[in-house]
Write a structure and sequence with these properties.
Length: 947
């Protein structure tokens, strides 16, 4: 009996080491009793140290490992349970666990045997394949973008031509102030321009025809590609014929194998007595060693034990499954006859005896589908140390081969796609550089035009308003009113052109701010009351009471849309009424969709003109501009403000009956309470003793600001630049500063930064600027400004802003510095874990793990993004943002921020530094920081409710 136990121990040791996967035997208390070399390798811990330690300490999730261990004892076996090994150097290895209990001679369970299958390489291969597919998709997208960019460049060239025409119209508008009697000649000039535009459209139609010819050529190219695929099919058929020849060769080898089988049958007769004794010993050994049986069955790979004559003495269930032969028939049969190449199998078997072991030797099992395996084996010895046989394990590599083949094919396709993408990229980059140069030139021109026109217009309109308040004769008042009306019309024209330029340049950023829609509608309607009363019109407002009181969206853009539509309704309606209505279309727990409509009883639009009214510089007819004025840009801007927010605008009209414009927008819901924006009227006499510092370099504007502030009853001082303003602040105190941005020596941004960070003053600062194309509210706030107002200055708006900021409590007067910008974002949650809950099937452990990963990777990426922008390291900026984008959808962050992130990537690819990219980076950093705060709270909540 002692000899049997010794033999069994040696046999068990050989079996353990023959299995390539990590194998561990554990007692009832979870203590490791034995391991193989694969376990040492995957943990980085020696066998001597592992034995006697706790089984659960070598996994990333000890609790889950304990649960799997307990399940082995509960069920007797366990298969394909996922865990992750933790190497002592910190590396992780994903595995699938299989295990079974083992018993003593009396049948009592005394422990368990578990085997771990490494699946990391399979995951990597699948991930690489997915990555290649994603790369192919991205290359397709790049081609589409390149095509869109070509169209955009053509449209840009057209717009530049149109802008030159508009510049001519602007010159005509200026001359119209002094020479109104030449109106007929100017209309004739406009007709000539319209004829030229018609000729241009005809040229565009010819270009579209040429594009159709190119499309036909592309179709012919695709047909050629189909013929190439047919040629490839011919090659595949030839390969099939080659495989058939190979099968005939296999048949010849089979004949040789049959002859060898006959020889082996004779050998069987000679050793029949020895085999019976060996079978009896093997049977006895199996009865006395449930431990050995557990070891054999724990591995999913086919396992055989073979004696010195090559006869099978034992096997596991996987061996029976792969051969399709019962255990009774396998025992005692020749091991070599189960392979397609018996001679090669015999050579491997002999090599095991020569070397003591063999690893990863390729063979093919003859099981009906010819399974490719890697042969691993080692000898085992009896109690005298004499070699008694061989233990072999055959690992199925069919799936691995399939993955390798697919990987090779994917690499080939990826390389081809990459070459095509590189060519497209070169073309796109060339076109992008040209487009960027044109856009920069256009923006610079518009910026200069805005500043140069608005600066004198500020004085003209401002002083006109001042004069209108003085005692005047009826004739003088009539002339001044005409000047003011003409100036207002010119400002409307400038604003329309610049708004359109912002949209074209992609500088129109949509905010997400809590506001009350009902209050916003009322405030906008209030602006038109005087004009509506003058025209003796009726105004009706219809508001759905089911609409939530507070929503999250962009109130400024909503105001701009409705103001344009109501302004049109008032302009084109002489008799009847105007109806502004807001209706609830649909809502859920997160958002609400509303329909806005503006209906009038005006002149209406002809059916054949409706399709064109949303285009730039288009009006219903040429007489519309002569009779009612306007640039034809209002509706174009409305459409381009609605559609990027996911909305849609429609129009219904009938000549002589009226017109209805309707659009829908979706807003987020919020529980936040928004305080009403109280407008301060001029009659407010509570605050008059206000000291204002005006920082302005142009004498004419200085005089205008003095006049306005004197009318308000405020004290005022003037500084010609930022440096003088700082000197005044060091010697005198003020309640508020009106700060021009563009000044010599020290501009408004530099002066504000010095006031905030060197003087540490929290005095309210309002920015004054004529250059509205480059003013970025985020940039003003980032240096510490509280608000801004565009020139020409609206005196009522200026008065309201001054009173509002001065009346705020001290703690509210603090500007929004860079450190405080984290609080600018809406105070509602920016994360929604619904997707994460669905993906993890509400598994708290997995949710905590994914949240931990986000919290670990995001803060460094935020810092890298900011630092890269500061250093203009565009590649690092692009890479940091690229790594952040996938987490937006996982953590339920709004898709708007994903669009912002992709916009940053576009700027980084173009290597363009601008105020816009700074603002976008700031917003992304803020929302990601807020997401981290929310996820930390969620992590602690989940942790507390964990069982």
């Amino acid at each position: 009996m002692e000899r049997t136990k010794t033999h069994e121990s040696l046999y068990s040791s050989s079996l353990i080491e023959a299995i390539l996967d990590p194998l561990i035997t554990i007692d009832l208390n979870g203590v490791i009793m034995d391991v193989n070399h694969a376990k040492e390798k995957i943990t980085g811990v020696s066998r001597d140290y592992l034995i006697g330690t706790n089984f659960f300490d070598y996994f990333t999730e000890p609790a889950k490992a304990r649960k799997i261990y307990e399940e082995v004892f509960e069920k007797g076996t366990i298969t394909d349970s996922a865990l992750t090994f933790l190497h002592k150097e910190g590396m992780h290895t994903n595995v699938l666990f299989n295990g079974a209990v083992y018993r003593d001679e009396s049948g009592t369970v005394i422990g368990a045997v578990v085997v771990a299958r490494d699946i990391s390489e399979q995951k990597w291969a699948v991930e690489l394949r997915n990555a290649n597919k994603e790369l192919a998709f991205q290359n397709d997208e790049k081609e589409k973008r390149a095509a869109e960019l070509i169209i955009a460049n053509e449209e840009l060239a057209f717009q530049n031509n149109e802008k030159e025409k508009r510049a001519n119209e602007l010159i005509i508008a200026n001359k119209e102030l002094a020479f109104q009697n030449d109106e007929k000649e100017k209309r004739a000039a406009e007709l000539i321009i319209a004829n030229k535009e018609l000729a241009f459209q005809n040229d565009e139609k010819e270009k579209r025809a040429n594009e159709l010819i190119i499309a036909n050529k592309e179709l012919a190219f695709q047909n050629d590609e189909k013929e190439n695929r047919a040629n490839e099919l011919v090659i595949a058929n030839e390969e099939l014929a080659f495989q058939n020849d190979e099968k005939e060769n296999r048949a010849a080898e089979l004949i040789i194998a049959n002859k060898e089988l006959a020889f082996q049958n004779k050998e069987k007769e000679k050793r029949i007595t020895e085999n019976k004794e060996l079978e009896a010993f093997s049977y006895s050994l199996q009865l006395t060693s449930q431990y050995v049986r557990s070891l054999i069955e724990a591995t999913l790979d086919p396992l055989f034990t073979i004696n010195l004559d090559g006869k099978i003495t034992d096997m596991n269930k996987a061996s029976i499954d792969i051969t399709g032969v019962s255990r009774e028939k396998l025992i005692g049969s020749d091991f070599f006859e189960y392979f397609t190449e018996p001679i090669k199998a015999r050579e491997v078997y002999q090599e095991v005896f020569a070397k003591g072991f063999v690893t990863d030797y390729p063979l093919t099992i003859r099981d009906g589908k010819l399974t490719d395996v890697l042969f691993n084996g080692s000898v085992y010895r009896d109690d005298c140390g004499k070699v008694a046989g061989v233990v072999v394990v055959a690992r199925d590599i069919m799936e691995q081969k399939r993955i390798e083949t697919e990987l090779i094919e994917a690499k080939v396709f990826a390389e081809l796609a990459t070459l095509i993408a590189e060519e497209a990229k070169i073309k796109a980059e060339t076109a992008t550089i040209s487009a960027q140069s044109a856009v920069k030139a256009k923006q610079q021109f518009l910026s200069n035009m805005s500043h140069e026109i608005r600066t004198p217009m500020n004085a003209i309109i401002g002083f006109t308003k001042v004069l209108l308040k003085t005692d005047l004769s009826a004739k003088q008042k009539e002339y001044l009113s005409a000047i003011k009306m003409s100036g207002d019309a010119l400002i409307v024209l400038i604003n329309d052109i610049l708004d359109l330029a912002k949209v074209d340049a992609g500088k129109m950023v949509f905010e997400q701010t809590p506001f009350k829609i009902s209050a916003s509608i009322s405030a906008m309607i209030h602006l038109f009351e005087t004009k509506i009363l003058e025209k003796n019109l009726e105004l009706e407002t219809v508001y759905d009471p089911q609409i939530p009181e507070v929503v999250v969206g962009d109130p400024v853009r909503l105001h701009q849309v409705i103001l344009n539509l109501v302004s049109n309704a008032v302009k084109f309606t002489s008799v009847g009424k105007i109806t502004v209505s807001v209706h609830l279309i649909s809502q859920n727990d997160e958002s609400v969709t509303l329909e806005f409509s503006v209906k009038d009883t005006g002149i209406g639009i002809a059916p054949n003109k409706i399709a064109n009214i949303f285009e730039n510089f288009q009006q219903a007819s040429s007489s519309t501009s002569r009779l009612y004025g306007g640039t034809g840009l209002g509706l174009a801007i409305v459409k381009q403000l609605i559609e990027p927010q996911g909305g849609h605008i429609t129009v219904k009209s009938e000549l002589g009956i009226g017109t209805t414009f309707s659009f829908n927008l979706t807003f987020l819901k919020t529980e936040e309470v928004v305080e009403p924006n109280q407008m301060i009227e001029e009659s407010d006499t509570e605050i008059k003793n206000i000291k204002v510092l005006v920082v302005e370099d142009i004498p004419l504007n200085q005089l205008l600001m003095k006049t306005l502030l004197d009318d308000f009853g405020f004290e005022r001082d003037i500084a010609s630049n930022g440096r003088i303003a700082i000197e005044k602040l060091e010697t005198k105190s003020y309640d508020i500063i009106l700060m021009d941005l563009q000044m010599p020596e020290m501009n408004g941004f530099e002066a504000t930064d010095y006031i905030r960070n060197t003087l540490h003053s929290q005095i309210p600062i309002i920015a004054l600027t004529a250059d509205v194309t480059t003013v970025d509210l985020a940039k003003c706030k980032s240096v510490g400004m509280n608000d801004y107002i565009a020139k020409p200055v609206d005196e009522q708006l200026l008065y309201n802003k001054i009173i509002t900021l001065v009346k705020k409590p001290a703690q509210q007067n603090a500007p929004l510095t860079k450190e405080k910008l984290n609080d600018i974002a809406v105070k509602i949650k920016c994360t929604d874990l619904e997707y994460l809950i669905r993906r993890t099937k509400s598994n708290p452990t997995l949710m905590m793990e994914m949240i931990s990963l986000y919290l670990e990777q995001t803060p460094p990426l935020i810092n890298t993004m900011k630092q890269s922008l500061l250093e203009e390291d565009w590649q690092s900026l692009y890479s940091a943002v690229h790594k952040m984008i996938p987490s937006f959808s996982i953590m339920g962050i709004s898709p708007d921020f994903e669009k912002m992130a992709k916009k940053i990537q576009e700027y980084a690819s173009a290597q363009e530094q601008s105020d816009t990219i700074s603002g976008l980076v700031l917003q992304i950093a803020n929302v990601c920081s807020q997401a981290c705060d929310e996820l930390r709270t969620e992590f602690e909540r989940i942790k507390k409710i964990q069982p």
